[in-house]
Design a protein that fits this description.
Elements lengths: L7 H11 L2 H8 L6 H9 L3 E3 L14 E3 L2 E3 L3 E3 L12 H11 L3 E4 L7 H8 L8 E5 L5 H14 L4 E4 L9 H4 L36 H9 L5 E6 L2 H9 L4 E4 L13 H15 L4 E5 L5 H9 L4 E4 L1 H32 L13 E3 L2
Parallel strand pairs: 4-5, 4-11, 5-6, 6-7, 7-8, 8-9, 9-10, 10-11
Antiparallel strand pairs: 1-12, 2-3
The structure holds flavin mononucleotide (FMN).
Length: 360
């Protein structure tokens, strides 16, 4: 690709031109007909901006507070599995780039780089964003507590339990590629499962899916704050607050698990009200389809405390390693700052629903 790369869509094209077909299908694909995948991106456009002019903008900044600490930017890289399949720098390159751009990172439980190696690279970085660890539920509680211990020891600041994928989604594009995963895609902290021969839903997998009681147990096993990722129903958001989790991530897993869920941009207002009705300080993050600084701005205006981006960061990594990720995050950061200035917002606290108009 010789075209200049000026936005996140260009990064996607460059990644597609670089990655083998099977890897592109894995990283870019969604569940079934990919209705949710596509809707996630377009739904942000259902909101128009309503800028205010002639506002004082001196000493503006993008800083935000999450879990009691101030960070440079309300933007994190979402947890994504097997990043060394996208590029040899993998999670290490992703973490370094995020830290260098003042953004946070959530390391996936299915990381292809040891969690200790990733933490060591960035915990000492002064201007970085938060470093959190994403967990899938492990039915073996002994394994789970050992992992919790390792995560806390390594310096991660919060746990993000993903609750929307107790069984894997059916991704047609991926299923067309039958070649085994390369060694670079091995998830180093993921247990080798014995093949299931169970009865019941999904060959017995659903029998070991976590419940609200398991989340409560998890919270007693760690001093780290626990967030739940993959909450889409307002009643689940309220229940999460009722049992005292530190926050929720509104996510449909980037449209990769259950197709035809609404876009997260459509669900955000109701989810924020349900969570904050229960706890007016409720921490709410959102991901899905964020591709522009204006999308990030809209998420904050609809009540999110911060956003996560998934695929665009992977695409930057795939075709240019850490430099590519840094460029993706920098583009978003610049677009977000420009949107703030043009809407008359000096800090993220100034951004609110008054800056939006529903278009449809
Ligand atoms: C290739 C890929 C792997 C992912 N792996 C995980 C994972 O291990 N754990 C998790 O909670 N979410 C995972 N996700 C979902 C992301 O964390 C995030 O919710 C989603 O990508 C956000 O949507 P976006 O890609 O449109 O920004 C993955 C997403 C992608 C694209």
């Amino acid at each position: 690709m010789n075209e200049p790369i000026v936005n996140l869509h260009d990064h996607a094209r460059a990644a597609q031109a670089t990655l083998p077909e099977a890897a592109w299908a894995y990283f870019s694909g969604g569940a079934a007909d990919e209705v949710t995948l596509q809707r996630n991106e377009t739904a942000w456009q259902q909101w128009g901006l309503a800028p205010r002019v002639l506002r004082h903008l001196q000493n503006g900044h993008t800083r935000c507070r999450l879990l009691g600490r101030e960070w440079p930017m309300p933007l994190l890289v979402a947890p994504m599995a097997r990043q060394r399949w996208a590029h040899p720098e993998g999670e290490a390159g992703m973490a370094l780039a995020a830290a260098a751009q003042g953004c946070g990172m959530v390391l996936s439980h299915q990381t292809s780089t040891p969690l200790q190696d990733v933490a060591k690279l960035v915990t000492g970085e002064a201007g970085r964003g938060p470093l959190w660890f994403q967990l899938y539920w492990l039915a073996d509680r002994g394994r789970m507590t050992a992992l919790l211990h390792a995560v806390a020891q390594a310096g991660y600041e919060a746990l993000v339990l993903t609750v929307d994928a107790p069984v894997q989604g059916i991704r047609d594009r991926e299923r067309r590629h039958t070649t085994p995963l390369p060694e670079s895609a091995r998830a180093v902290h993921w247990p080798e499962w014995a093949p299931l021969a169970g009865q019941g839903l999904c060959m017995g997998l659903a029998d070991v899916a976590p419940s609200w009681e398991d989340v409560q147990w998890l919270m007693t096993q760690t001093r780290l704050p626990v967030l739940l990722k993959g909450i889409t129903h307002p009643e689940d958001a309220a229940q999460a607050m009722a049992i005292g989790v530190a926050g929720v991530v509104l996510s449909n897993h980037g449209g990769r698990v259950l197709d035809t869920l609404p876009a997260t941009a459509e669900l955000l207002p109701q989810l924020v009200s349900a969570a904050r009705e229960r706890n007016d300080q409720a921490l709410v993050l959102v991901d899905g389809g964020i591709r522009r600084g204006t999308d990030l701005f809209k998420a904050i205006a609809l009540g999110a405390d911060a956003v996560l981006i998934g695929r665009p960061a992977l695409y930057g990594l795939a075709h240019a390693g850490a430099r590519g990720v840094a460029h993706v995050l920098r583009l978003l950061r610049d677009e977000f700052e420009m949107t703030m200035a043009l809407c008359g917002c000096r800090t993220p606290d100034d951004i609110g629903p008054q800056h939006l108009r529903r278009l449809t």
